[in-house]
Amino acid sequence: MNRFIVLGHRAYTTGDFKLDDICGGAGRLDILVRCVNSAFFLSHDLRKDSEIYLVLEGGTDAPKTVRFYGPDMKYLNPDERSTASLIRNALLKKLDGKNEIRSSPGVYISRRSFEDVMKDLSDKCRFIYLREDGEDVREYEFPEEPCYILGDDRDPTKEEERIMSEYPYDKINLGPVSYHANHCMTIVLNEMDRRVTRMEG
Ligand SMILES: C[S@@+](CC[C@H](N)C(=O)[O-])C[C@H]1O[C@@H](n2cnc3c(N)ncnc32)[C@H](O)[C@@H]1O
Predict the structure, then answer these.
(1) Residue 181 CB contacts under 8 Å (≥ 6 apart), including other chains
(2) Is the pLDDT score of 198 beyond 70?
(3) Cα 193 to the chain's mean position, in Å?
(4) What does the pLDDT look like over 87-144, one tens digit per residue?
(5) Structural domains in the chain?
(6) 7, 164, 184: which to mutate for ligand 1, most atoms within 8 A of CB?
């Protein structure tokens, strides 16, 4: 499973935003929507082995985590508006404590924070912090179960880095410049695709 955790530092948690204004009124939700697209879409196909955790930390009801899970995924389309609508529908669900509930096939919501998500995943995968000053991806040996952590348009905060430091993690760099979060996901998936193809070939 290719897992991603994306930190939406200002992303709204109440669902009372307009789908025409996900860039402004929803706290840069547009970035997270593009990350969902990069996690799953191929040309005429879907990566069923991807999972993405969107940690929404903005608005008046934070934190919440929306999880998109490839094996169960239905009704995901490549356009940003319909993905934003899936997230908004999830945010409108009534939540009970930290329990996760299904909002639509493959889309789940909970009141989990970044710390909760890290804790829940810590025995399932190897964390990999994507950072401009990490080890070169081309030299990196990918683990069986990677979980990539990245910021939205802002890097993870000092507190988020402290939370990460409670678990073992690798730090990898994808190239000599700073990329958009969803572009980082495409690059890292491409690097993994190339290695698998090389091993199979
Ligand atoms: C748009 S960047 C955030 C701000 C960016 N660090 C800057 O100074 O403009 C979004 C995230 O993508 C990841 N990222 C961007 N470029 C990267 C690179 N060259 N290597 C690894 N990760 C990168 C980091 O996790 C970063 O938090």
Answers:
(1) 6, 31, 34, 35, 150, 151, 152, 153
(2) no
(3) 19
(4) 999 999 999 888 999 999 999 999 999 999 999 999 999 999 999 999 999 999 999 9
(5) 2-200 (3.40.1280.10)
(6) 184
3-state helix, strand and coil shares in percent for the chain, rounded to the nearest 5:
35, 25, 40
C-alpha to C-alpha distance for 129 and 147, rounded to whole angstroms:
8
* pLDDT tens column, 37-58: 999 999 999 999 999 999 999 9
Our CA angle for 40, 43, 45, nearest 5°, is: 55
Query: What is the reported pLDDT for 25?
Result: 86
Tell which atom from ligand 1 comes closest to the C-alpha of 176. Answer: 19
* Predicted pLDDT at 120: 98
The pLDDT tens digits of the residues spanning 57-96 come to 999 999 999 999 999 999 999 999 999 999 999 999 999 8
Preceding omega of 63 cis (within 30 degrees of 0) = yes
Distance of CA 80 to CAs 31, 67, 99, 114, 122, Å? 10, 16, 27, 24, 30
3 forms beta bridges with: 51, 147
Q: Does the C-beta of 132 come closer than 6 Å to ligand 1?
A: yes
The whole-angstrom separation of Cα 89 and Cα 92 is 5
Please report how many Cα atoms fall inside a 13 Å half-sphere around the Cα of residue 2, on the Cβ side: 21
* Closest CA relative to residue 189, chosen from 13, 32, 50: 50
